[in-house]
TrEMBL record:
It comes from the Bacteria. Coiled coil: none annotated. CDD domains: Bact_CD. The lineage of its organism: Bacteria, Pseudomonadati, Pseudomonadota, Alphaproteobacteria, Hyphomicrobiales. InterPro entries: Amidohydro_3, Metal-dep_hydrolase_composite, Metal_Hydrolase, Metallo-hydrolase_Enzymes. Residues 121-389 form the Amidohydrolase domain. Gene3D superfamilies: Metal-dependent hydrolases, Urease, subunit C, domain 1. It holds the Pfam family Amidohydro_3. This is Amidohydrolase family protein.
Length: 396
């Protein structure tokens, strides 16, 4: 007997039933016994594992607030300094704002989120505390990882490392880092601090690396050296890694193989304005790749909707993927890749896995990516948390 049966649902191109008990997939087979179960007729819609938003900034979104006109130039440092000061001016409450984005993510089918959260000497741990409150509030409907993120600099802003240490002590899940050359102008100092915090707290690492070309490759190699030296294979992610989109005469192929061998994962959002790591080449090298919305409707840029199926479309377009089998790999990045990076146990479409699932109209995965229908059902641990594109939990 099952608690819930998803009937007439498409799994691996076949129409079948999925029985769910105690929050887990208990059976996948046609004609399951529905006796005593709640039945959701899925009308031949497609079943996907829960989407994984593996890189965003829940503390930053302006969702539901007054519009703030963006007049910033393209420099990262300008955006960082503006945001740190403007957050308090516009009244950005990280608890309220992160909750709004979480509810939007649930409606779009995400069942897990990794969020970088700013930690700096001006705003202290306020954003971390706000997102932590949101994590507690929605803990039964979504998994949230918090990255202690030194957005304004680590070595160059004295006191930040101590605040990061405190956030990790208070439950931050991941040690963040950022452009060790171009932000801190001290790659050794920055990366040694990041890796020392990771070792001290036994936590994984996720570093924003926007640095282009040979500068980014230099920083990446310093990350690989430290990953190997500390035995952190499988525990380090490099986000963006725009340098890997440089011309291959610089030795990108060899670096990709070194990244695979070191067990370092990549996160790419597939942005349109900069070079990006070659997705299929990275996957073929054996690298775990995940994706995310990154900042959404914030003081950096007004775009984004937290839809990881749309993200698979953006990744596909940015990487010139057109074959069904390639687009399916982009969806794998937005599901299994993110799950692996976040270390989600018992994830996927298999008997025994947690019933973290999305039901979406489509005859196959590629059609769902192309048409992006509202999510018919979203399940977290077997509980329906969104239906027909609407979350069943409230935002403040
Ligand atoms: Zn980011």
């Amino acid at each position: 007997m099952f608690d819930l049966v998803l009937s007439n649902v498409r799994v691996d191109r076949a129409i079948t039933d999925v029985g769910i008990s105690n929050g887990r997939i208990a059976a996948i087979a046609p004609g399951l016994d529905h006796t005593g179960a709640v039945v959701e007729d899925c009308d031949h819609a497609l079943l996907l594992p829960g989407l994984v938003e593996a890189h965003t900034h829940l503390d930053k979104t302006l969702l539901g607030m007054d519009w703030v006109e963006n007049t910033l130039g393209p420099e990262i440092r300008e955006k960082i300094d503006n945001e740190r000061q403007m957050k308090r001016v516009v009244g950005l409450d990280a608890a309220r704002q992160s909750a709004r984005q979480v509810v939007m993510s649930i409606a779009k089918g995400s069942t897990a989120i990794r969020s970088h959260v700013d930690i700096d000497t001006e705003n202290g741990l306020a954003d971390f505390e706000g997102v932590s409150a949101t994590r507690s509030r929605y803990s039964d409907v979504i998994d949230i990882d918090i990255v202690a993120f030194p957005q304004s600099g680590l070595v160059s802003r004295k006191g930040t490392a101590e605040l990061m240490d405190e956030a990790l002590r208070q439950g931050a899940d991941v040690v963040g880092g950022l452009d060790p050359c171009s932000i801190d102008h001290d790659p050794k100092g920055h990366l040694d601090l990041v890796f020392d915090l990771a070792v001290k707290h036994a936590k994984p690492i996720d570093i924003h690396l926007h640095e282009p070309g040979e500068l980014g490759m230099f920083s990446f190699r310093m990350i690989l050296e430290r990953t190997r030296a500390h035995g952190l294979s499988g525990k380090v992610t490099v986000s963006h890694a725009f340098s890997l989109g440089a011309n291959d005469y610089l030795g990108i192929s060899r670096l990709l193989d070194e990244i695979a061998a070191a067990g370092v994962a990549l996160m790419s959002t597939g942005p349109s304005m900069v070079p990006v790591p070659p997705l299929i080449r990275a996957l073929d090298a054996g690298i775990t790749v995940c994706s995310g919305t990154d900042g959404m409707r914030d003081l950096w840029a007004p775009f984004g909707n937290a839809d990881m199926l749309e993200r698979a479309q953006i990744l596909s377009q940015r990487n010139n993927l057109s074959q069904d089998i390639e687009i399916e790999r982009a969806v794998d990045v937005c599901t299994y890749g993110g799950a692996k990076v976040m270390g989600l146990a018992d994830y996927g479409l298999a008997v025994g896995a947690f019933a973290d699932l999305v039901v979406v109209a489509g005859r196959n995965v590629t059609e769902a990516v192309v048409t992006l229908p509202p999510r018919k059902l979203v399940l977290k641990r077997g509980r329906v948390v969104a239906r027909d594109g609407q979350a069943l939990v409230e935002a403040p």
